[in-house]
Amino acid sequence: MNKEEYKLYIDDVIRRVEFARVRFDEKHIVKIVAISKYSTADEIKALYEIGQRAFGENKVQDLKAKSSTLEELPLEWHFVGNLQKNKINNLLDINPALFHALDSLELAHELQKKLEARDMMLEALLQINSAKEESKHGVMPEAAVDIYKQIQKECPNIHLKGVMSIGAHTGDETIIRKSFETTYNIYKQLEGATICSMGMSGDFELAIECGSNMVRLGSIMFNKL
Ligand SMILES: *Cc1c(COP(=O)(O)O)cnc(C)c1O
Prior knowledge:
Layout: H1 3-24, E1 31-35, H2 41-49, E2 54-57, H3 60-69, E3 76-79, H4 88-94, E4 98-102, H5 105-118, E5 122-127, H6 141-154, E6 158-165, H7 173-189, E7 195-198, H8 204-209, E8 214-217
Parallel strand pairs: 1-2, 1-8, 2-3, 3-4, 4-5, 5-6, 6-7
Helix pairs in contact: 5-6
Bound molecules: pyridoxal-5'-phosphate.
Pyridoxal-5'-phosphate (PLP) binds at residues 35, 37, 58, 80-81, 166, 200-202, 216-220.
């Protein structure tokens, strides 16, 4: 695709987001984070040139490599992957705009120690395993509200902004919808929360219809479906 064709292609993705958000609420605003984990720095630059600013990676080393290669561009970097304890310092060195996958109280405490030592803040989302899948990270939905409040109380250097979830891994739309509704219901119970991050290339319209206001789109934004 040349630049003009790519722009038309992205316009169409944006149009799909627009239609879905209006189905939820006319005043609902949705942000697209382009997940670049399968894409090169050149591909990120091409998407930047047609207007995309927020990008995300799921491996700390990739986030580090791509954000430093592209440091001259005014990009906003998100980290959406599972964070191992031994990678905390590397992530904090990069100081991402938002960490989507805070998935346990234990990790929050580890982060808090390192953040305090550096006298820095980290904006983060609590990841919820809303379909209770073995293969997924995140806190159980029943425990989510309490854990969220506990992190707020015990980790003053973590600024929780809301929740993140990955839709149920199934072809059954009813089950996927239910997993998004579970996350959205938790989000609504959190005082001051402003971000509900859910929806990927295969299920973003459904996620937005269930109240998502941040979609993490990888393959579709880079035309790799
Ligand atoms: C890869 C990834 C995405 C994007 O996936 P696509 O299906 O390519 O849109 C979103 N969120 C997380 C946490 C990911 O790891």
